[in-house]
Amino acid sequence: MSQKYMKVERIEHGTVIDHILPSMAFDVLRVLGLSRDKTMSILVNSHSKKGGRKDILKFEGVELSAEEANLVALVSPKATINIIVGGKVVKKFNAEAPPVVRGILTCSNPNCISNQDEPITTEFRLGKDESHRYVCTYCERDIVDLAKRVSA
Ligand SMILES: [Zn+2]
Question: How far is the CA of 70 from the centre of ligand 1 (A)?
Answer without folding.
Answer: 22
